[in-house]
Amino acid sequence: MSPGDRGGNASLLATLPTRRMRRKLARCIPQLDFEDGDPPSYLFVSGRANRCNPPGVECVYFCETEAVADAEYRRQWQGTPGADQPRLTYFAMVDLARIIDLGDEMTLGALDLTDEDLFGTWRGRSEPTRLQGIGLAISRQASISAIRYPSAAARSAGMSGFNVVVFRASVCAPDSLEILGRSGDSLERWP
Question: For a 10 Å CB count at each end of the chain, is N or C smaller?
Answer without folding.
Answer: C
